[in-house]
Amino acid sequence: MTDEALPGAAGRRVLDTQKDTAAFKALTHPLRIRLLGLLRQDGPATASELAVRTGESSASTSYHLRVLAKYDFIAEAEHRDGRERRWRAVHEVTTWSNAAVAGSGDTARAFLAAVHRAQADHFERSLARHQRNLDAGRVAPEWLEPSGVTDLLVRLTPESLAELFEVVERTIGELSARDAGDPRAEQVVLFLAGLPLGEEAAPPAPPTPAARPAPSAPTGDVS
Question: What's the CA gap between 207 and 162, in Å, rounded?
Fold first, then answer.
């Protein structure tokens, strides 16, 4: 499973739960995940530029960029003026085995939870950005019909769900290669989730109220 559609092998960083524990831990921080995503999405940037985009201080983004560089997720890019380091993503995507993560220690599982939260945040930001563009009339007419969001509920076997991901990823690769030289092509963000719902646990029973003594009879004199 990946955090994005799979490109060619040269564009992937494959994390191994046995060998890359420190790298997994580096990506448990939500800001590092976002910084890496911004470098992949928008290209090379400085700590100051990324601070503006994330609302963080440049000291904070600079520190977290150095951590990402330490574990080879990013590297220095060509400098424009030599005054501040520019950073670039080394790979297009990060991949890992969900089964291996589930069977490993707390660090890898914390990484997976952090990535899922980051993906949900990314979806919300992307949807809000698209809505702003719609409201401002910045979406060209030819994009109105094919763009959007859908959700489906189907019954599948584990093998069929795996096949679905494979077909989607292969199709994305074929279409992006076909459109690479088309001047009409734009950056499109895609989100794909396949989550077996299973049986939902029953909600816990409400606590039994503490017994209260029965009210006592009035003690005043009765005429």
Answer: 42
200 in Cβ contact with 194 (< 8 Å)? no
What would the two tokens of residue 124 be?
A: 């919300």
Task: Kindly report, residue by residue over 41-51, the tens digit of the pLDDT.
Answer: 999 999 999 99
* Interatomic CA distance for residues 73 and 107, integer angstroms: 18
DSSP 8-state assignment for residue 148: -
| Residue 83 pLDDT | 76
Buried b (16+ CB within 10 A) or exposed e, 112-151: bebbeebbeebeeeeeeebeeeeeeeeeeeebeeeeeeee
Cα(86)–Cα(78) distance, integer angstroms: 7
Q: Is the pLDDT of residue 203 over 50?
A: yes
CB 93 within 8 A of CB 7: yes
Distance CA 191, CA 4 (A): 8
Residue 35, Cβ density class (10 Å: 0-12 exposed, 13-18 middle, ≥19 buried): buried
- The residue type found at 190 is L
Phi, psi of 12 (to 5 degrees): -110, 145
Task: Pick the closest to residue 174 from 162, 163, 166, 164 (CA basis).
Answer: 166
